[in-house]
Design brief:
The structure holds 2 protein chains of 2 kinds. Helix content of chain A is 36%, strand content 16%. The relative contact order of chain A is 0.14. In chain A, the strands form 2 sheets. Chain A has a 4-stranded parallel beta sheet. In chain A, strands 5-6-7 form a 3-stranded antiparallel beta sheet. In chain A, strand 3, helix 5 and strand 4 form a beta-alpha-beta unit. By secondary structure, chain A is of the alpha/beta class. By secondary structure, chain B is of the alpha/beta class. A 5-stranded parallel beta sheet of chain B has the order 4-3-2-5-6, with helices on both faces. In chain B, strands 16-15-14-17-18 form a 5-stranded parallel beta sheet. A 4-stranded parallel beta sheet of chain B has the order 10-9-8-11, covered by helices on one side. Chain B is globular and about 60 Å long. The chains are: A alpha/beta, B alpha/beta. The interface between A and B is large, with 45 and 52 residues.
Chain lengths: 164, 420
C-alpha cells in the first residue's frame, strides 16, 4: 500500500482536467488522466488499497464527478484530508468512495509513516498514534451500503413498483 | 429562535415547520439543471429510464453550452443524444446551442425565481442566489438519480452573514468585491455554508449580484444568496414574470450565524486573483509589469451587456495592444443582442476583439482560446486553476471586466483607473 501525500486546495482540474470532461466518462477513459496536472506519476503507479492524504478543501472546483469515479475505480481505499469541498464530498458518497475528515491525523502525518485504517470503527492509526473520526449519519450510510446512489435509487424504485 | 434563509427554505420544501443546521431533509427541487453533461447522465440510467421514465419532466432544464458548437465527433454525438432525450421525454425547458451559458439562461428565462430550490450538475449553479433562490451544484450521478425520483437529500447548512456597507467607487465592480471577499475568507472559508448578503445592497444591480453569487462556490459555499428586494422585483417584472408566481424567503432577524462579516464597499479597489488559486488575491497595482497574451471578457461571471458596456467605455476608439488577443464571450444571446444594440460589441470588435458564440468556450479549456505553454491570460471568468484553460504551463489571472479591458489596451495587467 502506498500513501499519496498532497497539500491544500487540490482542485478538480488538478484531479481531472476540464478539457476531457466531455470526452471521458468511463473509468478506463478517466484513469490515464487522473491527477495529470498535479502528479503525473499517480496514474502510472497507483494501486488498489492506496490512500491519499491531503490538506484543506480537497476537491474544490467543478461538479465533474470523474475525479471521484476515477479514484474509486483505481481502488483508492480512502482520502484522508483536513477538509473537503462540498460537491466532491457529495459525489464521494454517491460513488461509495470513503472520505475521512481528520485534520489532526493529517497534521501528524509525515511522509514515510505507516497508515492503518479501520473505517468500521472510525479509527485511523498513523505511526504509533491513533485518531478517531465520526461515522457518517444513517441517511448517508444507507447510500454507501447500497454501493452508491444509483444502486440505492434502483432499489427504491423497484420497491416502489413492488418487485425485486 | 429564528431561522436563517437556508433553514427556512429547506423547512418549507421538506414540509416541516422548523429545521436546524446539521439536520438532513429530503426535498423535491423545483429545478434540475443539466448541460452538455446530460448525455453522460442519461447514459448511466438508460435501462431505468426505459422502465420508469423521467419523474418530473417540468423539473428538468437542459442548456447546451459547454462545447458549443460541437468540438469534435464525440461532443457532437453527445449533443445529438441529448436532443433525442429531450424529444422522447417531453422536456419543455430545452435550449440548444447559442442560447447562452446555462446559469444566465436559467435566470433570464425566469426558470428560477425567489424562494425556489434549484440544483444543477454544474458547480456555478449557486448563481441563482442573485434572485433569492436556494441553488447549488450536484454531480452527474445525483442528477441521474433525480431524473428518476425527482427528489434528493440536503444537509441544512450553517450560515454566514455578510453585511455590505456604502457603495463601490467608479471603475470598481462587483467582481472586485467578490475577489476581495474570497481573498479574505479563503477558498474554503465558507465550506458547506450558506452565505447571506444584506446591507446596502440596493446599490448592486442584478448583474452585480449574479457575479457575486456565481463565485460563492469559489469560497466553498453551498449557496450565496440575496433577498428579493425592489431590484429583484423590478428585474422579474422586466422579464414578464407575474408577482403571483413566486414567494420570497428571507432570514428572521434573530437567526443564528456561524460568522458575521462586514465589507465597506467604498474601500474596495480593483483586485486580481493570481495563479493558481482563486483566493490568491491582491490589488491590481501589484501586477503592473505582468504581460498578458490573452484577455478574456465574458463567461457566466462577467459576460453580460453591462460588462461589455464598461469595457467599451474604457477602450473607446483605441485598439488592443499588439501581441495581445481580446476574446469576447457573451453569457447569452439575449445579452449579446443588448450589447449589439448599444453598439458596444462593435466598439470592441473595431478595437480588435474576437467574438465567440455565447457559451462556456475557453473557460473550461475544451476549445476556443486554449493557451500555449508560457502564456498568460487575464480573464473575467471564475477560476484560475492550473490547466483550467487547457494548458498546465500557462497562467490565468482573474479580474473585473474593467481591468481586463484596460489590460487589453496595454498588454499588461493594468488598473482601469489609469487608462481612463
Amino acid at each position: 500500500m502506498r500513501i499519496w501525500y498532497y497539500g491544500d486546495d487540490v482542485n478538480t482540474d488538478m484531479l481531472f482536467p476540464g478539457k476531457y470532461t466531455y470526452t471521458c466518462s468511463k473509468p478506463e477513459e478517466i484513469r490515464p488522466h487522473l491527477l495529470e496536472d498535479l502528479d503525473p506519476e499517480f496514474a502510472n503507479s497507483v494501486q488498489a488499497g492506496d490512500i491519499i492524504i491531503a490538506g484543506r478543501n480537497f476537491g474544490c472546483g467543478s461538479s465533474r464527478e470523474q475525479p471521484v469515479v476515477g479514484l474509486k475505480a483505481v481502488g483508492i481505499q480512502a482520502v484522508i484530508a483536513k477538509s473537503f469541498a462540498r460537491i466532491f464530498y457529495r459525489a464521494a458518497i454517491n460513488q461509495g468512495l470513503l472520505l475521512i475528515e481528520a485534520p489532526e491525523a493529517v497534521d501528524y502525518y509525515q511522509p514515510g509513516m505507516a497508515v492503518e485504517l479501520n473505517a468500521d470503527l472510525g479509527r485511523v492509526r498513523i505511526g504509533t498514534q491513533e485518531f478517531l473520526f465520526p461515522k457518517p449519519p444513517p441517511e448517508i450510510l444507507g447510500i454507501v451500503e447500497a454501493g452508491g446512489l444509483l444502486e440505492y435509487t434502483r432499489r427504491k424504485l423497484r420497491e416502489r413498483v413492488g418487485r425485486k | 429562535m429564528g431561522m436563517t434563509f437556508a433553514e427556512k427554505i429547506l423547512a418549507r420544501k421538506a414540509g416541516k415547520s422548523e429545521v436546524r443546521a446539521g439536520e438532513i431533509v429530503f426535498c423535491k427541487p423545483d429545478r434540475l439543471l443539466m448541460h452538455d453533461n446530460a448525455a453522460a447522465i442519461t447514459d448511466k440510467i438508460a435501462k431505468e429510464l426505459n422502465e420508469f421514465g423521467v419523474a418530473n419532466p417540468d423539473q428538468v432544464v437542459i442548456v447546451l453550452d459547454h462545447t458549443v458548437p460541437a468540438v469534435d465527433e464525440k461532443t457532437a454525438a453527445g449533443h445529438k443524444k441529448i436532443r433525442e432525450f429531450v424529444q422522447k421525454y417531453g422536456i419543455r425547458h430545452f435550449y440548444d446551442i447559442g442560447t447562452g451559458v446555462c446559469h444566465q439562461v436559467m435566470v433570464e428565462k425566469g426558470l428560477v425565481l425567489p424562494g425556489m430550490l434549484a440544483v444543477g450538475s454544474d458547480s456555478h449553479t449557486c448563481s441563482y442566489g442573485a434572485v433569492n433562490a436556494f441553488a447549488t451544484g450536484i454531480d452527474r450521478t445525483e442528477a441521474a438519480a433525480l431524473l428518476l425520483t425527482g427528489e434528493t437529500w440536503f444537509k441544512v447548512p450553517q450560515s454566514i452573514r455578510i453585511q455590505l456597507r456604502k457603495r463601490l467607487s467608479e471603475l470598481v465592480t462587483a467582481k472586485d468585491l467578490v475577489l476581495t471577499i474570497i481573498g479574505q475568507i479563503g477558498a474554503d472559508g465558507a465550506d458547506y455554508c450558506s452565505v447571506e448578503f444584506w446591507g446596502d445592497i440596493s446599490y448592486l444591480t442584478i448583474d452585480d449580484r449574479f457575479t457575486i453569487a456565481n463565485m460563492g462556490v469559489e469560497m466553498g459555499a453551498k449557496i450565496a444568496v440575496f433577498p428579493a428586494d425592489e431590484i429583484v422585483k423590478g428585474f422579474l417584472t422586466g422579464i414578464g414574470v407575474e408577482r403571483s408566481d413566486w414567494q420570497e424567503v428571507w432570514a428572521d432577524p434573530d437567526a443564528q450565524y456561524r460568522q458575521e462579516l462586514v465589507f465597506e464597499l467604498d474601500r474596495i479597489v480593483p483586485m486580481v486573483a493570481a495563479p493558481h488559486k482563486v483566493d490568491n488575491v491582491k490589488p491590481v497595482n501589484e501586477f503592473k509589469d505582468v504581460e498578458v497574451q490573452q484577455c478574456l471578457l465574458g463567461t457566466c461571471t462577467n459576460g453580460r451587456a453591462s460588462d461589455f458596456a464598461l469595457a467599451a467605455q474604457i477602450i473607446g476608439r483605441r485598439r488592443v495592444a499588439p501581441g495581445t488577443r481580446l476574446l469576447l464571450l457573451p453569457a447569452s444571446r439575449s445579452e449579446l443582442e443588448k450589447a449589439l444594440d448599444a453598439g458596444d460589441i462593435q466598439t470592441l470588435i473595431e478595437a480588435g476583439g474576437v467574438l465567440l458564440p455565447p457559451g462556456c468556450g475557453p473557460c473550461l479549456g475544451a476549445h476556443q482560446g486554449v493557451l500555449a505553454p508560457g502564456e498568460r491570460c487575464v480573464s473575467t471568468a471564475n477560476r484560475n486553476f492550473k490547466g483550467r484553460m487547457g494548458c498546465r504551463e500557462a497562467e490565468i489571472y482573474l479580474a473585473s471586466p474593467a481591468t481586463v479591458a484596460a489590460s487589453a489596451l496595454t498588454g499588461k495587467i493594468t488598473d482601469p483607473r489609469e487608462v481612463m
